[in-house]
Amino acid sequence: MDSSIPIEPEAHTSLVYRGEVRLIWSLSIASIVVYINLYLVQGILPLIADRFDVAVSHGALLLSVTSFSMAFSLLFYAVLSDRVGRRTPLLISLYLLLLSDLLMVFVADFSQLIALRLLQGVLLAAVPAIAMAYFKDELSKTAMLKAGAIYIAANSLGGIAGRLIGGALSLHFHWQEVICVILLISLIGVVTVHCLLPAKGKNRHLPSHFLAGTKSTTWYSSLYRDLTGFWHHLEDGKLRSIYLVGGLAFLVMVNQFSYIQLHLMSSPFHWGRFQVTLIFLCYLSGTLASLYSSRWIGRFGRDRLFSLAILAMFLGGLVTLLNTTLAICIGFLMSSFGFFLLHSGCNAWVAQRARVHRAKATALYLCCYYLGASLGGPYLLPFWQHWGWSGVVAASSIVLLVLAWVLHRLTRARSDKVAQVDFVT
């Protein structure tokens, strides 16, 4: 009897759909774990200041340190996942992240914490470096747009959870106890990801540019191919502009949330440790923007949505200058909405535009994205020290004006290209 029984088309479609759903869920949960660990420090800045005897504003630089190591590690994971596949490096990095959380329990001084956060940045980079390329490899174009929107929404939920959980725990627990709770949450998430992540994808990913390798392939020829992959995307002027947009937008967004906490803890607000973390609920407007971004881009066009996003971020900052609780909340709701609309669009655009070396294209975007976050803290710090929150808003507005100019050139270049095609036809 022939054991190779053909699979009915309907059954095959159902299996593919279930595999796609599992992939989306697993990478989204992995994203939540990553961003809980990344942004935990923003929710426990007062606890860090007390525990390690440093200024709260200096404690805020911990996020910059982690973002810096994370930015360059993204490039490493892009190369690694193109060589050995997506699943293995992703899972190994998550389990090593659990080990680093355990080590944080035994940190004795601030310098050790900085060193460990640098290491965590390396481990946290795996999921964002691999996720969009993983989606591109395994999902259809339509499913990938939805997956990207859900994944970015999970990013925002992870960011909210990390800050709020940290802020709530810091009210009642000591440093070691807070880290132990985060370790437990992360453990549950990582085990769930391991169980959900499909063992085999549709493409059983082994990159075409690496398949060409033979036994005679040398390390320097492999390195040359990897560098060529990065250079291929850096030669693309449109991709370079998208990378710059992501970096500038994140520079403003994530660091404004750090400094607004310091503002709300000072006069005339005098918010407490947990109260200041509630400002991160404004990320929920970004979650909404992420979920609907693919639908809105399809309906209204990317250029219009990007213009709306920049306007929302700019006006959001100005509204906070009214310096009331309501105005600050409205302003950050506007800024979050605009930022995540912009980020979702850029992230999907990069993944769609990259025909080859997809993980490298995504990694370059996220490298610029997290470099923006790491540079934003030191950039805004002197403005905060001299002019307070109004100085932060002014410095952010300068960056947003540069960002608007870059987007204008990007959209104008596309319009000129369309006009040339119309003239020829």
Explain how this protein is built.
The longest helix has 67 residues, at 358-424. The chain has helices at 9-43, 45-52, 56-59, 61-84, 87-104, 110-124, 126-138, 141-172, 175-196, 208-211, 219-234, 237-265, 273-277, 283-300, 302-320, 325-353, 358-424. Mean pLDDT is 85; it is low at 1-7, 204-216 and 418-425. The protein is an all-alpha fold and 425 residues long. The protein contains 17 helices and no strands. InterPro entries: MFS (IPR011701), MFS_dom (IPR020846), MFS_trans_sf (IPR036259).
Give a quick precis of the structure.
By secondary structure, the chain is mainly alpha-helical. It contains 17 helices and no strands. It comes from Shewanella nanhaiensis.
Question: Which helices and strands occur, and which strands form pairs?
Answer:
Blueprint lengths: L8 H35 L1 H8 L3 H4 L1 H24 L2 H18 L5 H15 L1 H13 L2 H32 L2 H22 L11 H4 L7 H16 L2 H29 L7 H5 L5 H18 L1 H19 L4 H29 L4 H67 L1
Q: Per DSSP, what share of the residues sits in E-state strands of 2 or more residues? A: under 5%
Terminal residue distance: 60 Å
Residues in helices, as a percent range:
over 70%
Query: What's the number of helices?
Result: 17
N-to-C order of helices and strands: HHHHHHHHHHHHHHHHH
Structural class by secondary-structure content:
mainly alpha
Subcellular location: Cell membrane
Organism: Shewanella nanhaiensis
Domain Major facilitator superfamily (MFS) profile: 23-412
Family: Belongs to the major facilitator superfamily.
